[in-house]
């Protein structure tokens, strides 16, 4: 599905290999209380306070997935940051931010097999 991020009910922010914001959906703009015209083209590092700024800088130096929760005045959020690669070369990060309840269920499930999604 093309432009899935524009339809997503969570905040989606995409940064290039230099940490510049290149794409945001409306929930991301709402989360930062800024418009796309203000945030796109700016350094994402400036949007992350304190410890998260240091961590965000580090995951750019050593690309890897980073996941954490935050509490804000508008509720608890799960933040998931993952590196993006184009033809095997690091090309930036995507950050997803989801609202989550105070208590969240956790399930242990079986691993999928090839037959799980077999065509009928």
Structure description:
- By secondary structure, the chain is α+β, with helices and mostly antiparallel strands.
- It has one domain: PAS domain (Beta-Lactamase, 2-Layer Sandwich), CATH 3.30.450.20.
- Helices cover 22% and strands 33% of the residues.
- It is built from four helices and five strands; from the N terminus they run H-E-E-H-H-H-E-E-E.
- Strands 2-1-5-4-3 form a five-stranded antiparallel beta sheet.
- Strand 1 and strand 2 form a beta hairpin.
- It is globular.
- It starts with a helix and ends in a 21-residue tail after the last strand.
- 13% of the residues are buried.
- The mean pLDDT is 84.
Task: Label this structure with key terms.
120 residues; alpha+beta; Beta-Lactamase; five-stranded antiparallel sheet; 4 helices; 22% helix; globular
Write the layout of secondary structure elements.
Layout lengths: L3 H4 L3 E6 L4 E4 L1 H7 L3 H4 L10 H12 L4 E7 L2 E12 L2 E11 L21
How much of the sequence is in beta strands?
A: 25-35%
CATH topology: Beta-Lactamase
Distance from N terminus to C terminus (CA atoms, Å) equals 23 Å
Number of helices: 4
Give the count of structural domains: 1
- Principal-axes geometry comes out as globular
Question: What is the radius of gyration?
Answer: 16 Å
CATH architecture: 2-Layer Sandwich
* H/E element order: HEEHHHEEE
The overall strand count is 5
Structural class: alpha+beta
């Amino acid at each position: 599905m093309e432009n899935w991020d524009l339809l997503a009910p969570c905040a989606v922010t995409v940064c290039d290999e230099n940490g510049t914001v290149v794409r945001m959906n409306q929930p991301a703009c709402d989360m930062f209380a800024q418009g796309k015209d203000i945030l796109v083209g700016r350094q994402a590092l400036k949007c992350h306070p304190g410890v998260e700024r240091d961590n965000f800088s580090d995951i750019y130096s050593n690309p890897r997935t980073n996941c954490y929760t935050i509490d804000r005045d508008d509720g608890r959020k799960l933040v998931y940051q993952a590196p993006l690669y184009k033809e095997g070369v690091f090309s930036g990060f995507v950050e997803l931010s989801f609202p989550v309840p105070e208590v969240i269920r956790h399930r242990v499930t079986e691993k999928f097999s090839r037959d799980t999604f077999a065509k009928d």
